[in-house]
Amino acid sequence: PRFDGTKIIRYLADRDCVASLVMPESGEQATQEAQASAERQDDLLFVVGGDGSVRDTALGLAGSGTSLAAVPAGTVNVWATETRIPRAPLAAIDAHLAGQSVHIDLGRAGDRCFLLMAGVGWDAEITGRVSRPLKRAIGDLAYIAQAAWMAPRLRTRDARWHTSEGSFEEPLAWMVFGNSRLYGGKVHLTPRAIIDDGLLDVLAACPRTPSDAFRLAGKLTQERLQDPRLIRFRDSEIRVETPGFGVQLDGDYAGQTPMTFSVDHRALLVSLPPGPLPPIFGAPHVNRRGT
Predict the structure, then answer these.
(1) What is the tens place of the pLDDT at every residue in 216-244?
(2) Which of 114, 189, 210, 285 lies at a C-alpha separation of 20 to 30 Å from 270?
(3) What pairing do the DSSP bridges indicate for beta strands 174-178 and 117-121?
(4) Which string of DSSP letters, residue by residue, matches 39-106?
(5) How many angstroms separate the CA atoms of 236 and 264, rounded?
(6) Cβ 268 vs Cβ 103: under 8 Å
(7) 24-47 residue pLDDT tens
(8) Which helix (H) or strand (E) holds 221?
């Protein structure tokens, strides 16, 4: 969306709101501007962009008293969907100004972070090969098209991971670490995840044969999560020790394993619209801003 950031800053000032606005052109810019906003002790930092921009802004705001106010302008906008932030930019800004600030967990993956979910294996391989022009042309259908093209060449690999319950070794297709519930804006692979409970909800698809893999994929698209080859658990820290698995964070490719996935409990302050909190929240401490 195109709109005048200067006018918005004046509009915010007229509402006695100490805030900043960032429309980042890179992840590094988003993080740097967020750090500067936190140092100024702004009440709110409005970030215009998709889930990647929101994630990179969160990295710079973590541990501060500045609330992240997302204005959705990306391909899928899962965070906005999960938290009921309006899609129209000005409506989103008004919702934040009348809204509330809540502390949530921030996922960690090595020296990076994720707000929604992380993935290891097939979904990361697919994500890493989706081109930006295709995403701009057909939106989130680009991921489905890429998955269909790659499906005949995807193979499981033996993977070893470590949790608080011990070490596990299984043939792994993909593993999802859910801080929230909605995967890719389409399905609930971690339907009981709570975004402020200090835990990641983990689902590992571990097929033993190609036909097994397609069977599990069909189950997951229908949100049928009961199967002996679907391993589900919760933990605050999981280390995937086997090297060479791709990693994606909030839909962006982010390198390879080995990598440790963990939680910073209630490390991020986010802005939400007024009213009852969405189901992904437990019993958070809420700061009401509405008049």
Answers:
(1) 888 888 888 889 999 999 999 999 999 99
(2) 189
(3) antiparallel
(4) HHT-SEEEEEE-HHHHHHHHHHHTTSSPEEEEEE-SSS-HHHHHHT--SSHHHHHHHHHTSEEEEEEE
(5) 9
(6) yes
(7) 888 999 999 999 999 999 889 999
(8) helix 210-221
Structure tokens, 252: 């962006």
* Per-residue pLDDT at 196 exceeds 50: yes
For the packed helices 51-61 and 27-40, what is the interaxial angle rounded to 10 degrees?
40
Calculated CA dihedral for residues 117, 121, 125, 130, nearest 10 degrees: -30
pLDDT digits 0-9 by tens, 83-110: 999 998 889 999 999 999 999 999 999 8
Q: How many CA atoms lie within 13 A of 126 on its CB side?
A: 26
Cα 224 to Cα 221: distance, rounded to the nearest angstrom: 8
Nearest to 231 by CA among 281, 280, 163, 151: 163
Which residues does 166 contact at the CB level (< 8 Å), separation at least 6? none
The encoded tokens of residue 61 equal 């705001």
DSSP H or E stretch at residue 150: helix 141-150
Q: Which residues pair with 70 in a beta bridge?
A: 47
